[in-house]
Amino acid sequence: MILQNIRYLVTQNENREVLEYVDLRIKDDRIVEIGGSLDYDDRKVDSSDRIVIPGLINAHTHASMTLLRGISDNKELERWLNEDIFPAEEKLDEQDAYIGALLGSVEMLKSGTTTFNDMYFHMDSVAEAVKDSGIRAMLSVGMIDIEEDTEEELRNAVNFLDRYRDENRIVPGIAPHSIYTCSNELLRYAKNYSKLHDVPFHIHVSETMQENSDALEEHGMTPVEYLKNHGMVDEDLIAAHSTWLTNRDRKIMEENNATVAHNPAANLKLGSGIADINSMMENGINVALGTDGAASNNSLNLFQEMKLTGLLHKRDDPSKLTEQDVLDMATINGAKALGMEDEIGSIEEGKKADLAMIDVDKISMNPRFGKDGLISNLVYSFNGNVSEVLVDGDLVVEEGKSVEIHENNLVEEVRDRAEKFQN
Ligand code: NI
Q: How far does residue 48's CA lie from ligand 1's centre (Å)?
């Protein structure tokens, strides 16, 4: 297939080039050629009224929690979890997890996200939702052993990893929930598996001030120092939240090429705080962008998250964090976080054909003041309603609708399933 005469191609390549009136050739699941007037005997799709961007990457979420959207909006993390989320999760069965993840996957695809990074339980259900919707995901069993058996938690996670190793759109990872819900033994085993299989080590870190003061009291160290002390801070680390990193923590993250998955909406909503992203950028830390689950966001639309990110970190100095920085977080930085920067995160020859296409005539995309204006519109004014989405070169969103999933039926089942969570 050739996307012909693309009005704007936002490559997110090394030079952050935006190409105009260019052709893009896709063969099977890959971008094979980008150039002017490509002449092959392929199916041609006129794209002269389209802006094409790399599919966005959601670096931290819990897709099944989309079924719990709006269930609890006015509590800080600990009360939110203990009073509302854990009791709801007690009732959440495999089919609920599937339907929640399917709702989340469709929501993400329709707002231009083509890959998400997830940790939760009932992971096989999430994997089914990924396959059925056509999205791509890194999936990890979220491990906790406060009350649970350490060995069993580990066995479940490793079995999942083995089962999905050869799936096309699913990349398995390792995800101990946090240092306060996992024993040192579990963390060490998890880290070994992550190293052994060369997969990311995805964990919640310094989400609240309380987490930091508890860690200082219990271990005499911040969560990042604790992880560092046990050899767990390296390029495989995806530290979700990192809201309360100290100067020393940032230095450790930077020196060891670790990633922060920033989740500003969830941090604000649960009153957890605001991560110091400008300092992290100055440190040169890889910062990716996540939504967290829909029970704490309550949206999985990364365009909203980009706007919030841009605004939040300009509050003291509007010269900080440019629109290009923010778009990088939602694309190439996310790919680096997942160790998939050779496959996704930018539009380049040889990479996967994971693309989102936007109608140039959308009200919120006009006018456009050059390249910067185009990026600015993507970050600050576009609502995320993309026209088409391709994953592996397959059309999964067409005319703004999911190709694979009958949306009305899905919504009906979501309403039925959500009933039992009503208090
Ligand atoms: Ni989370």
A: 39
